[in-house]
Amino acid sequence: MIGLSSTLRASSKGSPAAPSLAAASLAAQPRTGLALALSVAGLALALGSGCESALSDGTPGMNPFGPGNFGPANPNDPLNPNNPSNPNAPNVSGVPGPGEARNPTLSTIQNNGPTTDANGAPLPTEMLMPLSQCDTPGPRQIRRLTSRQYRNSLVAVFGDQAVPDAPVLNDPSTLGYGVDADDSLVQDLGADALMGLAEDIAVWARENGKINQFANGCNQNQQNCQDGFIRAFGQRVAREPLSQQQVDRYRALFSAPGVDAGSFDAGAEAVMAAMLQSPYILYRRELGPLDRNSQQYQLTDYEVASELSYFLTNNPPDATLMQAAADGRLKTPEQIDAEAARLLATPEASQVMGQFVRAWVDVDRLLIKAKEGADLTPELKNAMLAETELFFNDVLGRPDGTIGELFGAPYTFLNKSLSDFYGIPGAAGDAMERVDISDGRRVPGLLGHGSYLTAHALADNSSPVQRAFVVRERFLCNDLPEVPTNLDTNLKPQISGNTSRERYALHSSMEPCMSCHKLMDPIGFTFENYDGFGRYRDTEAGKPVDSSGGVPLMSGRQLAQPEVTYPISGLDELAIYLSELEDVRACMINNLSYFGYGIANPAKWPNDAKVCTDNFIRQEARDSGNTLKSALMAVLHAPHFTSRVRDID
After folding, report:
1. Would the pTM of this model clear 0.85, i.e. be above it?
2. How many Cβ atoms are within 10 Å of 192's Cβ, its own excluded?
């Protein structure tokens, strides 16, 4: 647990360190120093709300996609292979059988109806049963800004990229995402570094004439000028108007010990240093009114404005969005849609969506991936990542761009260097441009991207297991058995004349490797026409490449019994399979909602309650043709986006 405290600390800048807004709101008299370490109780008091449960510590490795979030399958549906009238049918629902455990870091998709027929073939969307829904949102919470969001907020406050910067916030990663509300905290050395940065910025602001832009020409050391500055600067920092009580407490800093009582600028500097390290700038509040007797809370328009802007652009609300909040115009889906459409048209939104797809497909590792045997320059790696970002944003930006198209679109984005590296003609310059691949010269969609194929491969060769693991974990949300801690997972050196497939077949032919590799290898072998750098190959080690495989269906964390494998002849067929499967749509949507909501802890949002929100998003996306844009907008339309339930006691 982290605790809120304020301690005296002499400023090394020649200006007194000032208290945070949290300390100012808790202390009867202002103090001249702060070591900021935000506690569950202290932060709740500082923000004026009883939100103890919403701020509870997260469990390390908590599964953000939560087992059982997708509702039970319908066992009586005649198309369901688990129909009890068919005693010989395998269990392919994804629901663990008796005695089957779940991996807490992954998840199993359960669809309200079958997703495959008895032979494992995916069923079309129109044959899926409607999802059961309710209107229960999730819990109130407070989310610390990411390091990027904090930096963007500072730049927005002053309107100047020259505002001092320092690495004061750390963004822990959960399954590749840095969005989890329970992981991102301010404590210990980070609190001290944050204080130092706040003081640096306040000194910079004073020395560079930034105070006047908030004082509006009123710089006399009198109450009306002080209050005007506090309200103007405070609203920019806190992203909502300050209360009179807050203004009164900040005003006391103008006469705090160590502050030149005759200098307006000195008092304004102290106020700035306090506000820039306060929880009101550091944390996004999603609490609603302060009435503790309520069972459900409607978020304020200012809270919705921050939620919308940080989710879509990593920036604080701009002037237009703040005005919409002030006018009470962020209460209906139509009002939110209007602002969302404006924000999604910005370059910042494209960057955020690029950040999402890189985390979802887990390709950020490409930049630090050691590779041997090809001249894979940093420029090429960045071009590969740009290909994935541009492709995702293109599908998102088209009204008819579907989730399935992420795996089936017959085009990609290349520049000349990447086009030459792949051996795909079509791009002529340094800029990325759309290139048609409908002639079959490359597998469609994300599976053919160099970012995916190269990041999930060995240093000098392909890796069927790494590539299949992403299919299982990121595209199907399967639970996977844990690797024994004492198991040596290192591959033996490849025998001269053997293919990569032969190497893995030998490695996985015996236990304890076999039981896990049976889940992976058939999927991974379908990628074998692409080497460890994403380049197409027909032969390896002088032999024709064998890219046949399949998708073994799972029951819980193991193979379904009796075993059922959907046969796949190569990566093109795997792409088709994934593009049509409801499990894939559900898994992508669940990743997207986690990216937006940042809640992974079932102690805060139990799985049987969260399923309502998951199903709302999936059903709205289905009703709109499963377009990628409709899935994103459904995250904004779900009851959880604008309201919350009472915290779990």
Report:
1. no
2. 16
